[in-house]
Amino acid sequence: MLDGLSYDDHEPPSIGLVPSGTSWDDVRDHIKIAHDFLLVEPGASGEYAGAYWTGTDMVVLDELGTDLDEALDEFRDLLRQRGEL
């Protein structure tokens, strides 16, 4: 489990904010257990990525933008479009 996550809960669903430098293996392990929606801070690409658990595997939605608020909105929109909310 990832320690010290902050969460954006201004709008449902609550999304955990994963600090940069966190490995994708750690993100996967956390999601597999907690089934949280997570937004991963930009790495080399410079853009946020969203991750969630489908019940059998982790899905990563990348290229959500470089601005935190826009990335959160885009991630929530994509989750709605995919029927995850």
Which keywords apply here?
2 helices; 85 residues; alpha+beta; single chain; Double Stranded RNA Binding Domain
- Indicate the structural class: alpha+beta
CATH architecture classification: 2-Layer Sandwich
Lateral arrangement of strands in the main beta sheet:
1-2-3-4-5
Total number of strands: 5
Poorly predicted regions are none
Tell me what the structure shows.
The chain is an alpha+beta fold and 85 residues long. The chain has one domain: Double Stranded RNA Binding Domain, CATH 3.30.160. It is 29% helix and 24% strand. The chain is built from 2 helices and 5 strands, in the order E-E-H-E-E-E-H. The protein has a 5-stranded mixed sheet. It is globular, with a radius of gyration of 12 Å. The mean pLDDT is 92.
Give a brief description:
This protein is α+β, with helices and mostly antiparallel strands and 85 residues long. It has helices at 24-34, 68-81; strands at 6-8, 15-18, 37-40, 49-53, 58-61. Helix content is 29%, strand content 24%.
Topology:
Blueprint: E1 6-8, E2 15-18, H1 24-34, E3 37-40, E4 49-53, E5 58-61, H2 68-81
Parallel strand pairs: 2-3
Antiparallel strand pairs: 1-2, 3-4, 4-5
